[in-house]
Amino acid sequence: MTIEQKDIFKIAAHHRFQWEEAQQSHVILFPEGMVKLNGSAGEVLSLVDGKNSVDQIIASLKIKFKDVEGIEKDILSMIQFALDKAWIEKAN
Amino acid sequence: MATQNNGVAVSVTHTQPLWLLAEITYRCPLHCAFCYNPTDYDKHTQNELSTEQWINVLRDARKLGALQLGISGGEPLLRNDIEEIVVEAKKLGYYSNLITSGVGLTEKRIQVFKEGGLDHIQLSMHDITEEINNFITNTKTFELKKKVAAMIKSHGYPMVLNVVIHRYNIGHIKEILDMAEALGADYVELANTQYYGWSLINRNQLMPTKEQIDYAEKVTNEFREKIGNKMKVFFVVPDYFSDRPKKCMNGWGEVFMIVTANGDVLPCHSARVLPNIEFPNVRDKGLMWAWQDSPAFNRYRGDSWMKEPCKTCPEKEKDLGGCRCQAFLLSGDAESADPVCSMSPHHHLIEKAIEDAQNPVLQAQPILFRNDKNSKKIISGEAKELVKDFHTTP
């Protein structure tokens, strides 16, 4: 599936996304497994909430991380990765 | 900081448990021949932790970092406080999983679990035939399991099926996977029997051939191709048929913590078979001490305990020498390489076990089912001949 700017995604059913104090990272939890996310993956998925569209996520992160070059490409590849892993699903 | 007797500081662990397995009771209405529970479990059925003690375990483990919670047994539903435990787990932020045979799951209870925030239910299934289901579990539970599967689905839970694979059902993998699909399973774990506890005693009667396992894996891969993302199928490879040992529990005291029915804190399911280790109990010094400082949890952390051939092995980081329990049970030396490893001086024991399992005389020996009577027999030493080949205690 190719990602469009207007697409809205949410955390997939039976998955949970949360901040873990002990790990100092975001995690994704699902039956039989979990994934500890790195900082940038955590930033992106924090905004995947069933409300923000992909272009809104990109806009927010562009403001937050002004000096990061090529951020748009990174965000899109992160969303694609999460989608391929079935951590997130289409909400619109 | 942990210190040795001479006062020299030793490395302090920075590991955190991610998984907490609460083996909440050893009581079980099923009597599976392959159960990994300790054969002397009957010793631990009278002194189960109370609800309050379990809640404290959950709190303390969460503080240490645990976030995946398995509520297991025995059959956890034999306790009537799972409802309270589930609510507490949710409050603490665990991703919680009830691991059940399905016996004792009612519409009323599942509804309470759902409202309480239980995240998923893992149901054990045994075969597509009533005959084999009832034989291997020594109970009449075939119809019940199908009903429970439907109940789990209808309450919006992800359907997670666990099927332990052995000689009696390995020829039915395709049909088992078709059944899982028909039941609407989201995850299926085909867990080849690992030989600990009751399954070790019944090894000759349970172990399939290499050809059967290769075929089962081929069928599983074909099914995966067909089903795609709709269902996740895990095939847990049996280590006896591999020449490299498994990185057992992802390392001793690295990510897993088990608290047993009577409050013992273990780094793996069968650690109590190991000699000369005193495992901590939550009734004594608490979980923090157990995980970080107890001699038991530090005993096989890292690789400083290793001897040859592990010590200088280029693969030691990869598998950490395999399983300590398996090393002890088969060779009598917990610090030796896991006999599964082709470089182990005890590897012939694995080859012999595979050979024995094809011996018609040994195959025909009666199965010792997991039940209280047989557990008492093992504790009293009455069933000595069954354990004579293993360095198991008692």
Main features:
heterodimer; A: 92 residues; alpha+beta; two-stranded antiparallel sheet; 3 helices; globular; B: alpha/beta; 9-stranded mixed sheet; disordered N terminus
Tally of strands of chain B: 9
Structural class of chain B comes to alpha/beta
Total number of helices of chain A: 3
How far the N terminus sits from the C terminus of chain A, by CA atoms, comes to 14 Å
* Count of individual beta strands of chain A: 5
**N-to-C span of chain B:** 35 Å
Major sheet strand order of chain B:
7-6-5-4-3-2-1-8-9
Number of helices of chain B: 17
Backbone CA Rg of chain B: 21 Å
| Oligomerization | heterodimer
Mean pLDDT of chain B: 92
The string of secondary-structure elements of chain B, in order, is EHEHEHEHHEHEHHHEEEHHHHHHHH
What's the helical proportion of residues of chain A?
A: 25-40%
The largest sheet of chain B, given as strand count, sense and whether it forms a barrel, is: 9 strands, mixed
- Give the helix/strand class of chain A: alpha+beta
Low-confidence stretches of chain A: none
**How confident is the prediction overall: mean pLDDT of chain A?**
93
Report a brief summary of the structure.
The complex is a heterodimer of chains A (92) and B (394). Chain A has three helices and five strands, in the order ββββαααβ. Chain A has 92 residues and is an alpha+beta fold.
